[in-house]
Structure formats: structure tokens, C-alpha cells
Amino acid sequence: MSAPASSPAYARPTRARRPTPAARTGASPYDPGETPLARTRRARRMARELTVLHPDAHCELDFTNAFELLVATVLSAQTTDKMVNKVTPTLFARYPDAVALAGADREELETILKPTGFFRAKANSVLGLSQALVERFDGEVPARMADLVTLPGVGRKTANVVLGNAFGVPGLTVDTHFGRLVRRFGWTEEEDPVKVEAEIAQLVPKKEWTDFSHRVIFHGRRVCHAKKAACGACGLAQWCPSFGIGPVDPELALKLVKTPTASDTE
Ligand code: SF4
User: Fold this and answer.
1) 97 and 221 part of one domain
2) Which residue among 181, 225, 243 has the greatest number of ligand 1 atoms within 8 angstroms of its CB, and so is best to mutate?
3) Is the pTM of this model over 0.90?
């Protein structure tokens, strides 16, 4: 069955099949009996399919250098990338680097950041971050994980975004979409993002980590939603042990698939 002409290319009606036992019973989709080799092969097959489904996957935050990406990533907490992209042109025109931002007028900064929500906390974060960059790294963003995670408000997720997208150092970005999807894929049972990152690093070749993260996040935003997964329109269905946690009927599922604009929710 092919998708209706109006469906995006990443929506692929599946051949009707029954929901998996895990989807029917609510059990964990992780199969402890699957050998590491079988899991790795299945993971690589699914990762290849994600490259076909989401060839355009990329970092959706606008930036021109590592400093801008670091700040934009901190601002993206609890809001959409699109909203961040609306405020950062004004922010970086006014405060183009860490030195300028470290000396920002708090009231003016809060006014610029207001549309992103939690603007007082975010103003604190970016001020503290910029001051630390000036004091400890000559105003430059360090290109090492060990240094990045010493910056206030920067955890491994943010550090991996910056490493992968600004410095070309492969990184897995374990955000809520990524964690949810790899658990649904039955690749890991871990909930802790650091443990998830370590397990997925064993399954996916290092050079693919950054683009793989974008593809998984795109799939989570557009097809495999937290509440109603579009299983019946999912190109990964045949390898996914969670198939059936959302509607398996292709027509129903296609209605759940989101377009890039509509899916930009976090
Ligand atoms: S949409 Fe359904 S089949 Fe596709 S990855 Fe998510 S849970 Fe698996």
C-alpha cells in the first residue's frame, strides 16, 4: 500500500499486522533473550531505515557558531526550537559573544528571552554560562565533553548537541523523544539518560551518532508520538516490538502523522 499523495514521505502505511505481545499486554518491549548480536543487527537495520525516512533530519536550532548553539540549546528547554529561533536573532545581534552576554543588562535580557518562557531562570542560566566561559575558557566554547559539562546548566545532552553540530564530534542526544523511542524499539530498558546513551553507543556506529540522534528525534516528533504513536504509518513497524501501542490501521495512523511545522512542539 502506498501513502496518499498528501502524506509526507516519512509516513508509510504498514501491511496490516497484529499488535505485538508487548503492545497488547503493556509489557516491556525489551527482550532479554535477544542476543547482543541480533539486537545490534536489528538496531542497524532500523537505523538504516531512519536514514531513508528522514533524510533531511538536522538540528532545528538556528546558529552560526558554537556559542550561539550552546545558548540556543539552553534556551530550548520547555519550549519549541521555532520559538528559540524567533528570539535568538535579536539576542545575538545585541550580545554576539560570551563577553557581551556576560555583561548583559538583566532586565533587557529578560525582555528578549520572555517569549521562550521561564525567562528569569533562562536569563540566569545564560548569564552564568557566559561568565564561566569568560572566566575559565577565554570566552570560547570548549570542544571537549569533560569541559562542557563543567559549565553551569550544561549536561551531557546539551554538550552532545554542541559537540555534534558545532564541532563535528559525534554525540548521541538523549532527549525525551530519543529515550522514549529507543525504549520502544526494545534497544534498552534504561530510563537514566546517561545509561541510555552508553547502551545505544554500543549499537550504533560512532560516526553516525549525531545524524542518528536527529533522525530519531524527527521520528519522535512526527510519527512515534508520546501519546498516540502512528504505528500503522510507521516505516519501522516490521522491526519494532512496540508495534500496536498506537493505531495499526493505516488510515487512522496517517491522520496522526505530523508535518514538520505541526510537530515542532518541543
Ligand atoms: S510508531 Fe509504533 S511501530 Fe513505529 S517506532 Fe513507534 S511504537 Fe514502533
Assistant:
1) no
2) 243
3) yes
